[in-house]
Amino acid sequence: MGLRYSQCLDPDGVDNDFPDHPVHSKQVFCAHPCYDGFGYGSSEVEDDDEDCDTESRFPVFYARGPTTRFLYSHSPRFMASSSTSSRSKPLYRKTSKYNKNGIAITYGCGQCLTHLSSSNQIISDQYTGKTGDALLINSVVNVVLGEPEVREMTSGLYTVCDIKCHQCHKLLGWKYIKSHQASQKFKEQRYILEINNMKVVA
């Protein structure tokens, strides 16, 4: 497998709530952990309701050169809804399992530990995936998208696609592309990460 660069989340810069800030503040690409001993460095990049699967402004981060095709930072525009428009304390600040001393934690792939998202991106933890409990997440990095398909879930019909780790291709969850019912439109362009498929990495 060739060298693939992953977008790394900065644990010191993820304590901001999601509508107003990107998923991380340091825009750094670093080599996958398996290359740590081989002298590959990192390079900074400049900025120019519950479902069960039955089967602000976010910048897009770019890398110069051929690595771009390996990098995915899907960044939906913030869409107001009954579950996200409130300015009350965000979930990760309310629950100690989603923060370390009040600071958001970073999630990585359960298999290769490539960074995926941070707890300040959690919209809801009241979801269920194929492997158990899951999180509705506002923004993720370092994933590749599968083919869109229509799925029937407990809250209705959706057009979704699977999301996989761009390093090891482990299945992580899915992305909501389109909701076929008006009451669930807030899920569009957001993600389900299954808890059993990821680990806390920072």
Description:
The chain is mainly beta. It has one domain (5-200): Peptide methionine sulfoxide reductase (Metal Binding Protein, Guanine Nucleotide Exchange Factor, Chain A), CATH 2.170.150.20. Helices cover 2% and strands 37% of the residues. It is built from 1 helix and 17 strands. A hairpin with a 2-residue loop joins strand 9 and strand 10. The radius of gyration is 16 Å and the shape is globular. 34% of the residues are buried.
Total of helices: 1
Rg over CA atoms, rounded to whole Å, is: 16 Å
Q: First CA to last CA: what distance? A: 26 Å
How many distinct folded domains? 1
By CATH, the topology is Metal Binding Protein, Guanine Nucleotide Exchange Factor, Chain A
**CATH class value:** Mainly Beta
Number of strands: 17
CATH architectural designation: Beta Complex
Element pattern in H and E: EEEEHEEEEEEEEEEEEE
Specify the biggest β-sheet.
Answer: 7 strands, antiparallel
Structural class: mainly beta
What is the typical, i.e. mean, pLDDT? Answer: 72
CATH superfamily heading: Peptide methionine sulfoxide reductase
Helix content: under 10%
Shape, principal axes of CA atoms:
globular
The share of residues in extended strands comes to 35-45%
Pfam family, one: Yippee-Mis18
Protein name: Protein yippee-like MOH1
GO molecular function: metal ion binding
Keywords: Metal-binding, Zinc
